[in-house]
Amino acid sequence: MNPLALLLVLSSVLFALGLLAVLTRRNAILVLVGVELMLNAANINFIAFWRYGPPDPQLNGPIFVLFSIAIAAAEAAVGLAIILMACRHLRSTDMNRLDSLHG
Amino acid sequence: MVEALTSGHHGVLWLVPLLPFAAAGLLALLPDKRGRLASLVVIGALAGSLVVAACALIGVLHPADGGGVMRSASSFVWFAIGDEPLRIGLLLDPLGAGMGAMVAFVALLILLYSRGYMADDRRFGRFFTFLSLFCGAMLLAVYSNSLLLLFVAWELVGLASYLLIGFYFKKPAAAAAAQKAFITTRIGDMAFFIGMIWLNSRAGTLLFYDGGNGLLESGALASLAGATTFGGITLSAAASLLILIGAMGKSGQVPLHTWLPDAMEGPTPVSALIHAATMVAAGVFLVARTHPIFAVGGEAGIALAATAWIGAITALYASLVAVAQHDIKRILAYSTVSQLGFMMVALGTGGVAAAMLHLVAHALFKALLFLSAGSVIHGCGGEQDIRRMGGLRKAMPLTFATYAVGMMALSGFPFVFSGFWSKEAVFHSAKSWPGGNGPFLLVVLAACLTAFYMTRQALLVFFGTPRDPRIHAHESPLPMTLPLVVLATATMLLSLVGTPAWPWFERWLDGTRAAFDPAALTKPGTTGLIVLSLVIVTAGVTAAWRVYGITAPRDASAPDPLASKTGRLWRVFEHAMSFNALYRKAVIGPLAFIAGGIDALERMVFHRSMANGERILKDVGRSAGRIDESAINPGFDRLCGGIEHQASSTSKSQSGRPQAGLRAIGLATAACIALYLWLSSR
Fold first, then answer.
1. Most Cβ neighbours (<10 Å): which of B315, B359, B438, B495?
2. pTM greater than the 0.90 cutoff
């Protein structure tokens, strides 16, 4: 197995774990953690394809990842703010209680 | 300008009525707040009218070159019905020019006075707008060369008088008086209108003078006098009688006089204007203008005889009623009715010049009396009852002086007051009438009563001691007293042109020159009448002095000294011989009865059928409602219920939990990817 394939397996596992956390955890903060995992799985793919793909002197892969991390930070701030408001409103972080759109 | 006016091109003469009309039209657009400006605009417009009217008067001062009356007529086609044109135009002759100059002069003074009198009124500007319309309408009537144009102006005068009598329209009495004036004069106007149409259909024209083809010229008069109509009277007499009814309505002749005393509800300057220059004079002027139609049936023909007798009865009736009134303005109102009767007597007995002299003299001194009365009312804080006044001579010396001039002119004090000579001219005309002595005797009696009631009023208002301690009289301000002085001077100056020694005014209307001839005073007939006038005035004044001067009532609640002596007769005259009650019984009563009957019919027939229709419609509606409730509603309800049930069960699948949604998205994405892989692998 070449290194690229190993890295892709790693990122797939990380993505699957993140998705699992997002879909199953009750705690809103852990759901946010899951989102971060999925984001970083994608970042690993960027670096892996840059490292083992065709030569790229312009460092497109790492720069893309740097942007992605910056955006993830911003997104985490927005996500935490939403969770904070929901927590204040519900006095809990249980995702299942955010069901005011139910039929 | 004088030549332009007399040449027959009347462009400038149109300015006389049009200036006040334009001012009224302009002011109707201004907000009421600009009252001061409005009064200046109106006074300016009327001053312009007065200048043109004075020039017109100068233009016709001398007889025409070939002898006869200086007269210039113009006309143009107003509109045509089929082939028949209706022509209107202006006429300038001594009759109209003298009247027009008088109207503009008196109206201007009244406007100046109103600036002081109405200064506190919030609707000051509106008041001047109406006054301007009033003056413009009257000036148009005076100069019109067509019975049609005169009628239009006549109706405008009626409208403006309605607006002004009802100026305090929030006061129910004023609103009622305005309606009464409008409706009563409308009865006369209807007769005038019918007479006008009749004249038009027979004579083919309504122009007064039209180069030989006019209504007042020999051709048309001969054809009108030749045609007979119902009852064998000539067409000219029938049309004259209809015109006379119109004039009776406007000039307050019995039995259409009841509106005139009630018109006192308007502001006092309006009373002065109505009684002096613009409204009631219009009726006398109409008869004077159309006098050739009246006269074509002979000096004692039915038309002139009716005019003379109605005038004489009115003169006596109104002077009797005036004796028993105690509202200062109401006495003057009845005296106006009475003096208009004098003018009608003069017209009926052939003295057009005497009537016009008395009209102009009366306009001046009656405006003076009303404005003085307004000054008295103003000075007494709105009090109008002469029983509460008394002793005002000292508090209001200027008003007393001007009032005295007006009162002496109206009573016919000798020699320096115009009323003496104009009344003498009326006597002269009535005495020489071939139709009998009746009107003459009645007006002589009325003249005696005039002196009596005017002396009574003067004694009660200005002499004696103040009878009401609550009234603190004061003299009115200069803007109000100045017009009084001017009018008093004019009243005395007018006596110069109407004496038998130099009858300039009468000769002028006839188109001849008057020579100064003092010997005319000593002619048997003239001297006798002058002596008679003197005796009448002396008798009236002395009688009033004996009743009211010597035994003056001490306080306001004391009964009139004459009332206790005459008893029931006094009350008859105090209530103006109950004309109002008579009309209420004879006219309003039956009308109300008919209206009540129609109302009952309406209730019984129409109301009942409407109620039945209503019931049928209600039944139809109720059964329709029942069908709706039993058949249509349940089906619809069931349909809605089904939809609602379905919808609610569908919405149950929405838990609202975020992760459920995410799960669905995740599964759908996985499915899409699987489908893509499957499709791309084939």
1. B315
2. no
Cβ atoms of residues B382 and B461 within 8 Å: no
The complex's ipTM? 0.79
Query: B268-276 vs B280-289: helix axis angle to the nearest 10?
Result: 10
Q: How far apart are CA A10 and CA B521, in angstroms?
A: 149
Terminal C-alpha separation, chain B: 116
A16: closest chain B residue by CA: B666
Q: Which domains does chain A have, with CATH numbers?
A: 3-97 (1.10.287.3510)
Cβ–Cβ contact B649 with A under 8 A: no
Residue with token string 């759109």: A101
Q: Is omega for the bond preceding B561 within 30 degrees of 0, making it cis?
A: no
- Nearest residue of B to residue A96 by CA position? B657
pLDDT for residue B419: 84
Q: Which residues lie closer than 8 Å to B134 by C-beta, 6 or more apart?
A: B107, B157, B160, B161, B164, B273, B278, B279
Residue type, B514: A
- Pairwise CB contact (< 8 Å): A103 & B663: no
Facing A103 at nearest CB: one of B652, B662, B663: B652
Put residue B169 in one of left, alpha, beta given phi > 0 → left and psi -120 to 50 → alpha: alpha
End-to-end CA distance of chain A: 50
Which residues on chain A place their C-beta less than 8 Å from a C-beta of chain B? 19, 22-24, 31, 95-96, 98-103
Which of B652, B653, B663 lies nearest to residue A23, judging by beta carbons? Answer: B663
Nearest-by-Cβ selection for B658 from A19, A95, A103 = A95
What are the tens digits of pLDDT across the range B323-361?
888 888 889 999 999 999 999 999 999 888 889 989 989
Q: What percent of chain B has pLDDT over 70?
A: 96
Task: Test B659 with A101 for CB contact under 8 angstroms.
Answer: no
**DSSP string computed for B355-367:** HHHHHHHHHHHHH
To test the contact with chain B by mutation, choose from A38, A90, A99 the residue with the greatest count of B C-beta atoms within 10 A, namely A99
Q: Are B470 and B381 in contact (CB under 8 A)?
A: no
B523 pLDDT higher than 90 = no
CA distance B551 to B268: 31
| Mutation choice for A interface testing from B649, B657, B665, B667 by most A CBs within 10 A | B657
Q: Which residues of A touch B658 (CB under 8 A)?
A: 95, 98
State the amino acid at position B103 in one-letter form: V
Nearest in space to B442 (alpha carbons), one of B349, B330, B562, B544: B349
Rounded to an integer, what distance in angstroms lies between the CA atom of residue B54 and that of residue B47?
10
| Alpha carbon A103 to chain centroid, angstroms | 30
